[in-house]
Specification:
The chain is an all-alpha fold and 133 residues long. The termini are far apart. It contains two helices and no strands.
């Protein structure tokens, strides 16, 4: 049989009637037992609803505390850097004054003792001969 013939032929009916699906009995709904109450769930919801406020306040307080600690640390480090810079400036001033004092002592010694400063080209280095055994 061709495809056209199959399409044109009336559909065969079976002798057996179509089966009807059995009707499902509705399941009984469970009633809450006398020991459970719906009120604690509501209280839990209210409690959870209001717990986010202190939790958020605690988180924001922690963020503020961290920022204050960071600022305090940066302030201390900047004070340390400032003190270090001041100490280096003081050391430079002391070295300058020490060099001036040293120069004055050299000049006074040169005048009073008749000493004079030689240039490196005028200095001759003497070397001792190696000892013999």
């Amino acid at each position: 049989m061709s495809a056209r013939a199959r399409a044109a032929a009336p559909a065969r009916r079976s002798a057996a009637p179509a089966r009807a699906r059995p009707v499902q009995q509705p399941r009984p709904t469970r009633r809450p037992s006398s020991g459970t109450k719906t009120r604690p769930q509501r209280n839990t919801r209210v409690l959870v609803r209001w717990m986010w406020v202190p939790a958020l306040a605690l988180m924001l307080g922690g963020i503020v505390w961290i920022n204050v600690a960071t600022l305090r640390l940066s302030t201390r480090s900047s004070l340390t850097i400032q003190r270090s810079t001041e100490a280096q400036a003081e050391i430079a001033n002391l070295n300058t004054s020490l060099q001036q004092e040293y120069a004055q002592v050299r000049i006074a010694a040169a005048h009073s003792l008749g000493m004079k400063q030689e240039t490196p080209a005028q200095v001759t280095v003497l070397r001792a001969p190696a000892p013999t055994r």
